[in-house]
Amino acid sequence: MKKKLNVLISNVSYQAATGSFLKMLRHSQYYDCYIVGCDFLLKGFSSGSMLVDKFYQASNQFSESEYASFIFEICKNENIDIVLSAEEKDLIMFKKMQLEQSLHTYIAEESIFNLFKDKHLANLDVQGKSILTPKTIMGRTDFDNSIKNKFIMRKRVSCCSRGIKIFDRRDTPSNYDFFTNDYITQEFISGSVYTVDVFCDKLGNARIMIPRKGLAGKDGTTFKCIIEREGHILDVCKKFYSQYKVPGISNIQFIVKDDRPYFIELNPRAAATIIASSLASVNFLDLYISHFLYDEEISDYDTMMNNVKWNSVVSRYYQETIMYR
Questions:
Q1: pTM for the whole thing?
Q2: Range 191-315 has CATH code 3.90.1170.40
Q3: What is the mean pLDDT of residues 201-219?
């Protein structure tokens, strides 16, 4: 018999909530979930608000402390067992206000969020661990010597591969300012894009790492992918997660060219498309809840990896919701 579980998903309009969390909870092998959602959007203006069992609307005028009180009130009213979120702002706020224990949620250290949101500092730090990254152009002379054709500019502080612009030097005015405080300029690497969904235990030890190659997507969200056991990517991931402790669910992205993975970014939260890895392996939220909420032991890395359905192709589709008014 499944265990009854009351779950709150904050920012339920977020892609990971609607496209992954809700599906994983509804198809949990171990938990019969009553799912409460909250969001700043009105009910009906996101699919997530229509797919939960009960919905609460937050005010856009809330301060951080008011929003925290709002979350606590929901937890009290609905007897919530665990709070889930894939929205970095929520996770950082929960961490900063030391709400993890009260909300029964488990989050990477704030220093990890701060480091990997700043793409320039993250690249420097990762390079110091002998992990390949795209070359970051540090000034006009470096640009003139290094860039012949394509290059990218990306927001220095960002997530989800957002804010990336691709340029061709041959089509760009020579006096264009590529060097601002808000953007970094990098070499363009043509290769396959991989997202690796990772689950780490309480000590930050990786228990499962699933590389998936994007076959179709837009704005950082994958619509079709293939699950591949790429040894060169997994080797870099093992090295990375031995250096950076990220308990719980996270994802790391690479561009692979000539069998060489170049680090793009770490997101210390679930990816929007984590459902793809869950379908090909184990329900990541079942793992998370069992280990972090109920302190259950989970299988070792080799056992978990040997049970993955490698070379599976996962395609996503839209599902419409409607609220009659």
A1: 0.92
A2: no
A3: 89
